[in-house]
Amino acid sequence: MDTRRRRSDRHKRRPRKRKKLFVSFLLLFSLLFISTAAFAVFQYELGKNNAQQNLTETNDSDETLEDETEVHEFQSKEPENNEPINVLLIGVDTAEDEPARTDTIMVAQYDPKNGDAKLASIMRDTYVEIPGYRDNKINASFFLGGPDLLRETIEHNFGLDLHYYAMVNFDGFVEVVDTIAPKGIEVDVEDRMYYQSGSTVIDFEPGTQVLNGQQALNYVRFRSDANNDFGRVERQQEMLTLLKDELLTVSGLTRVPRLIGSVEPYLDTNIKTTRMLSLGRDFILNPVDDVQTLRIPVKDGYSDQHYSHAGAVLELDFEKNKEAIHSFFSNESKGFANDSTTEDDEDM
C-alpha cells in the first residue's frame, strides 16, 4: 500500500518540475529578447547621435541634414505577395548653393525570404527618354525632377518597378564605411590612382590598402584613368560587396542597429525606420551570401555619341539592355551580369 502511495506522489511531482522548467525557460528567453531589443535600440540611438554630432561639427551649426532635407515625392507602390524589394539607390553631391547632382544610380533588389541580393548600376551618361522633357543623360532626370522623375525615367525606359528610394550624400557614405569597418576596409588596388584638383588629392599605390571612410569615398569616385566612369562603376560595386562581407562577420552583425542610426541623418528615403529595422532583422536571419552585379549599358549594348545639348553620351541598344535587366532581376539568366564587368572596358 505504501509503495503505491509513493509512486503516486512521484507522478504528481513530475508535472510540477516540468512546469518549473518551462517557466524558467520562458523567463530566460524573455530576458534575452528584452536585452537584445534594448541593445539594438541603444546602438541605434548611439549611431544616430554620433552622426548628428559629426554633422553639427561639419556644418558649424545645430542643423542636421534631416532639418535641411526636402521631402521628395516618390509615386511608388509597396511590394506585394512577398515579392523581392527594389530600391533606387542615389549617391548625390550636395555642393553648397548648388542643386544636388547624382553620379551614382543603382537599383538594388533584396529578397528577405532567401537573402538573395542583386545590384544593377546605370551609368550616369546613359542616353534615355525623360518623360515630359527632351532626351538626355539619365542623371539629368534627377536634376530636373528629383528621385521621382528618375524613378519614372527608369520605369519608362527599362520597364522596372521601383518600390523605394534611398538617397545619401558623400558624408553619409563616409559614415557608413567608418561604422561598418571602424578599423578600415581592405581593398586591392590594381594600378596607381592619382588625381589632384585644388585641395582634393587622391593617391593610391598598387597593392593591398586599408581605407577609412574618406579614403574609400576617394577610391569609388576616382575616374582619372583610361576606364573613366566604367572603372568607377566597377569600384562602386566592389566596395558595396566588401562592405556586405564585413557586415556579415560576427562583430559586423552587432553593428546593424548602429549602422541604421548612423546613416539616418544623412539619408533621404521613403523607407520608414520600422521598415529599415525589419529589413535589418531579415538581413541577420537570412544573410546575403553573394551579391550579383550588372552594369547598364551591357557589353556590346551601346555606342559613344555626342549631342550638342547633352555632350558625350552612351547611346543604348535598348532591346539588348532591357532584356538584360529583366533577365537579371527575374533570375532567367546570369550571363549578362558577368559580361557587364569584364573585358568591354579594355577598349575605353
TrEMBL record:
**Where does this one sit in the cell?**
Cell membrane
Signal peptide annotation:
none
Task: Name residues in a coiled coil.
Answer: none
**Highest taxon in the source lineage:** Bacteria
Q: What processes in GO biological process is this protein linked to?
A: cell wall organization
Cell envelope-related transcriptional attenuator domain location = 101-246
Under the cellular component aspect of Gene Ontology, which terms does the record hold?
A: plasma membrane
Q: Which InterPro entries match?
A: LytR/CpsA/Psr_CW_biosynth, LytR_CpsA_psr
Question: Membrane topology per the record?
Answer: Single-pass type II membrane protein
Q: Pfam families, per this entry?
A: LytR_cpsA_psr
- Which keywords annotate this record? Cell membrane, Membrane, Signal-anchor, Transcription, Transcription regulation, Transmembrane, Transmembrane helix
- Annotated function: Involved in SarA attenuation. Affects resistance to oxacillin and teicoplanin, as well as the synthesis of virulence factors.
Q: Which PANTHER family match?
A: POLYISOPRENYL-TEICHOIC ACID--PEPTIDOGLYCAN TEICHOIC ACID TRANSFERASE TAGU, REGULATORY PROTEIN MSRR
Tell me its family. Belongs to the LytR/CpsA/Psr (LCP) family.
Protein name, as recorded: Regulatory protein MsrR
Species this protein is from = Alkalihalophilus pseudofirmus (strain ATCC BAA-2126 / JCM 17055 / OF4) (Bacillus pseudofirmus)
